[in-house]
Amino acid sequence: MSTIDREATGPEDLQKLHDDLSEVWGNPKGLKALTIVNHTTLGLRFMVTGMAFFLIGGILAMLIRTQIATPDQNFMTPEIYSQVTTMHGTVMMFLFAIPILEGLAIYMIPKMIGARDLVCPRLTALGYWCYLFGGIILSFSMVLEMAPDSGWFMYTPLSSSEYSPGLGSDFWLLGITFVEISALSAGVELVVSILRTRTQGMALHKMPLFAWYILAMALMIVVGFPPLILGSILLELERAVGMPFFDIAGGGDPVLWQHLFWLFGHPEVYIIFLPAAGIVATIIPVFAGRPIVGYGWVVFAITVMGFISFGLWVHHMFTVGIPQLAQAFFSAASMLVAIPTGIQIFAWLATLWLGKPKMKLPMLWIIGFLVIFVCGGLTGVMLALVPFNWQVHDTHFVVAHMHYVLVGGMLFPLMAGIYYWLPLFSGRMPSETIGKWGFWLVFIGFNVTFLIMHWTGLLGMPRRVYTYDTGFGWDIFNLISSIGGFVMSAGFAMVLIDIALHFRYGKPAKTNPWNADTLEWANQLPPSPYNFVSLPPIETRHPLWEHPELPREMQEGRHGLATASHGRRELWGTDPLTGKVREIIHVPSNSWWPLFAAMALAVVCISLLLRWYPVAGVGVVIAIGFLLRWSWENGAHPKAAPDAKVMPGDPPLHSRTMDGPGLWAMTTAMIANGSFFLSYLFGWFYLWTVSPEWRMPDASPLSLVALVVAGIALLGGSALMESSVRRLRKQLDKGLAMRLYGAALLGGLQFVLILWVMWNANLAVTETSHDAILMVGLYYALLHSALGAVISLLQGMRVGYRYVGAHAPFEPVVVAYFWRYNVVVFWILIAALAVLPRVIGG
Amino acid sequence: MKAMVQRLHLTHPGHFVGGLILWSIWFIAIYGGLSVACAVMPPDPGQGAFTHINITLLVGSLITALLLAGLAWGCFQEARQHKGRKHFNAFVSAWLYVFSTLAVAFVAAPMVGLPPCL
Question: Which residues from chain A sit within 8 angstroms of residue B110, using beta carbons?
């Protein structure tokens, strides 16, 4: 490895090294700052934007509390109140909680695992712009007084065009889908970065617990978000075109929406909780001054939570009329989740018990978290019991429980994390006095608001009613809750003032100010764009406790990859299990393409909202053009890594191997794609078996022969891709371009055949849900065949430019993987849509 | 192929998710199976819990639990034979298999007392 003994060289050489790294990794100023792809800057942008949305969501909460503070209020009309409650939930869940935690992960993960950036920096930038534009579009609906008003979970039929005829639901469906591109982008790259770019020696069992939590969160995003994306697409198609997926008369079923929403919605609670728990598991050992008790048990608990949380979605639907035995399955699964939660809480308490805790500001928020979250967990177990659930369904009790879990389980740890990492963000320390005032106001205000709300709920007050009569006995409880809400707001104002003031008046932080054990504190305060001058070998879970000199050694360039004169942005590519170095990953630098692509997607989103379909079509073509142009600057392209020179003894560049991070990103993206596809199949079989007015035609409208021929063309294309990869493994690239063009041709043939099947089926997509859902499946296959053909065609062209070949064999491996996915999915689709109906009928 | 065999080894961290993936498949199978069976051939409600649906689901659950318990036992054996990373992987996997086994038993327990389609 390129471990350079910098002691042998002078300070001038060290300065030159810093200058070289700054030249390669530096952020441009002015308008070009929009091109930045660096994880530190983008992580901060995510967090600042998330905070802005938190303020918007907070103001909406205060409006709600003002309206229901006393009975018979006319502060807001019922219509505006419904918009405000819907947008409060939507903003807090989709535009604040998830993005700000993703932002923290984007900022922190490379620093914690000893890397210089995330593995797909341009994807980080695309994610940020999609989040920003989607959030603005969604929020703008409030300015127009057209905000969605069907509740943050948008139940059908209330959200369908019959009962919500305006643009409100469309704002929600399109805006949220746009924002979810951001969440999925972050999910994919966090998974790959954690698995493949840890510094040398950081085996899985030496990884910081925060990275374990983020790995689980990212995988859950990858699997959990696609069901909602599918649901949103189906509902928007129903509203815009009239395809009756959720309309009983057309053979649809409104309960399908609930399934798709909660398949996403319940895991989302854990997607929010897990990174917050990661903050807790990071901070407690630092302030207790000892390693966490039961590292392995915490990993166990994270894994269990990641899975079990997907088996609970029906507990949000206990009142829709599901058989008792099925309810019992979900009730039992809901209780099971208390086990991993309990393990984590006991591990944290044991660490505090066995250590010598120092009650600094971050710890205050952690204690607040422990108290509030345990209470929220207990009411969660109560709600898992079906009879109790029936009693309090849709009352303020559920609202109170949800806030105990989400504010206790996410916001308190987040505040602890912000205070803990503030010296890293700014190089300055916060004020303990103002910070403590802020904490106590929030803690007291929160409990006054939401503890009381449990009783309001038990007295029968339903959620989302805009006012109430004075005779129900809810008056005093609502008034107290509203006062508590304003106290909590004053606390958050105090915290924000503290954070704002500390940038100017905070004491400069010393190196590793909390005496932490993890690598992010080996950075300069605040960090440089390249994080570390050199990347160290790691042999322990607590590198800074066991090697306090490590930060200095790293800054002096004594460890790996201490060079930048080649002009590349480099990270270690390590083995996901052992942390052994396998290759050097070179990541792309600043670019306009992510911003341009996101802008084109924003045009698509707005055009769909306004029903300007031709403009939307043009927007799609432009967005695809930008994305393909972006993908062109990769591998051996002059703007990426035209030569493969590395330091003596260093491993090769990833683009010159057969297993770079792109393959892992493709695999992870296909997990998300597979989750979308499985959700689609679930919808198809659900409507088939459950929908009361489902109408299966006597004969399938799809031509089985044409579909089978299309499948054979797909198999042929995939075989050509596989043979190209096999030959590249043997360093053979003769005829490579022809093979790739051949695959593209076969992909094109599949595309034409699917188009022919769609044309000939004469599907009445606005008449029956059967035909509508068939059409969606065919479009899915059509898009995949087109994508397979286009990327194979581009690969063939890249061979001509010498960007791909025996010297740079990586990209066809990634493309072949996509073809493999296509083959499996297309044949399943044929079986489900065209064969099974012929075999078993309606 | 070699890589595939390595992944099957009980010290591979793939087993962190092995038990819970089996649990998830089992969970989907019992929920989906129950829903389809109740839609296609609902038994007489007077039969109580001991219907062909519950018995089939219970047998499937028992087989799943035995498989998971066997994998847990195997992981414990492996954990004893290794130190460091491999011990960690096998030990955590073993407890995850134990949890999955108990989760199958706990979630399946209502099949003994509740009729399937009411």
Answer: 325, 328-329, 332
